[in-house]
Amino acid sequence: MNLAAPFAVHVQILQQRLEAALQSQYLDGVVISAGIPHVYFADDMEAHFHPVPHFAHWCPQPGPHHFLVLQPGKKPKLVRWSPQDYWEEHVRPQDAYWCASFDILEVPDSRTGWQSLPTVGRWAYIGPETAIAQEWGFQVETSLLVSHLDWDRGIKTPYEVLCLEEATSLAAQGHLAAKAAFEAGGSEFEIHIAYLQAVQCRDVDLPYTPIVALNEKGAILHYMYKRTAPRNGQVLLLDAGAPHQGYGSDITRTYCTSAAPAEFQDILRGMEKIQQQTCQKVHAGVSFLELHHETHMAIGALLIETQLLRHCSVEEAVTSGKTTTFLPHGLGHMLGIQVHDVGGLQKNALGEPEKRSVQYPRLRTLRKLREGEIVTIEPGFYFIPMLLEKARAEDTTGQLNWPLIDKLRSCGGIRIEDNVHVMANGHRNLTREYLP
Ligand code: GLY
Ligand code: MN
Ligand code: MN
């Protein structure tokens, strides 16, 4: 895919947005740092480097210590840290699709980088080295500027949609390979390797550590281990994305074999239906809080239909918190240059927070969706021991079917997650185009 033309438009759009944001804060410009490596305490090892997201939004240049110098009416400048070094490889593209959008200044060390930055006028600095930036005269209290930029960042440019589409198409190949490895009886570790092989990435290059959970481990929402045993699992929950130019997809599928209990297979089919119905409701103007609530109502109905819950209405299942026992996380989140992208809890560009929901405090976004945003829709249904024990203690009238729950606990959980682009009158489900 040739990204040169869409990238040039992306930078033009970001430039326009930035000019409005700077004007609102009476600033002449902003320097955005690529960030600095994190060195582990009492060690000489560095953590895998993640760029400052505000930098990555503008520029796919990898590595730390670079700066972007951005001001109204001027071509963006990339001050690129290019040390002479035989320990590490420093990737410095000269003719990548994005290079023409920047004036590039190569600097041999970070001090020279700092010395090259503007010194006249009111400039803000976004990045981790605020003490140094302050010494150089930058304004480092940037919360209002950042709120403005984060609010704008919710709306994806056509270039960003293309990157997320590539990230989706790649992850879909990984998911198909992982499904085949699961069906062949593979362990979590083998399924993980099959995924990496298909996407041709090291795991540190993925947007997040994949969750590869067989059976009961599916109930650990952020399960990180990859066991070499057991093999021949009955249920696989796989939450894994793939990268493209700094953007990442975030996709979950749950599969079970015919050996899984029939009741669990029914719940899985029910969850697939609920997830698809929720995706269908996505359009500009719909309240994400409302979608989340409707998902809980649907899960209440599923609990009753599958006889996990008796002598209880759907409304009571939701208001009493019984559905939250099975779905304790939010329906989804913004997706973009960060997996949990910014702006979901903001009410406006000023950064005023949306009022949190008392009933659903875990939601990462609550407000009405805007045209151009990309969100995940990821309802789940889990048998989480800690939450089940609490529910059992509270279930004095025996509404929950404990023998059935105890039978299904070893199946862990279900999550189905798609990435959905919000349109004026509907949506585009990027994930289903590649992973039906
Ligand atoms: N993979 C993390 C999440 O789904 O939010
Ligand atoms: Mn996920
Ligand atoms: Mn997600």
Structural class: alpha+beta
Bound small molecules, by name, code or SMILES, are: glycine, manganese (II) ion
What is the fold-level CATH name, i.e. the topology of the largest domain?
A: Creatine Amidinohydrolase
* Shape assignment: globular
* Biggest pleated sheet: 5 strands, mixed
Strand order of the largest sheet: 4-3-2-1-5
Topology, number of strands: 15
Assigned CATH class of the largest domain? Alpha Beta
Any idea what the CATH superfamily of the largest domain is called?
Creatinase/methionine aminopeptidase superfamily
Mean pLDDT: 97
Q: Number of helical segments?
A: 14
* Percentage of residues in DSSP E strands: 5-15%
Key attributes of the depicted protein:
globular, binds glycine, single chain, 15 strands, 5-stranded mixed beta sheet, 2 domains, 14 helices, binds manganese (II) ion, 436 residues, Creatine Amidinohydrolase, Chain A, domain 1, Creatine Amidinohydrolase, 3-stranded antiparallel beta sheet, alpha+beta
Show the helix and strand layout.
Layout: H1 4-24, E1 29-33, H2 53-58, E2 67-70, E3 77-81, E4 103-107, H3 110-115, E5 123-126, H4 130-135, H5 143-153, H6 158-183, H7 188-199, E6 211-214, E7 235-240, E8 243-244, E9 247-248, E10 251-256, H8 262-280, H9 288-305, H10 314-319, H11 322-326, E11 374-377, E12 380-382, H12 385-394, H13 402-408, E13 413-415, E14 418-423, E15 426-429, H14 430-434
Parallel strand pairs: 1-5, 3-4
Antiparallel strand pairs: 1-2, 2-3, 6-7, 7-10, 8-9, 11-14, 12-13, 14-15
Helix pairs in contact: 1-5, 6-7, 8-9
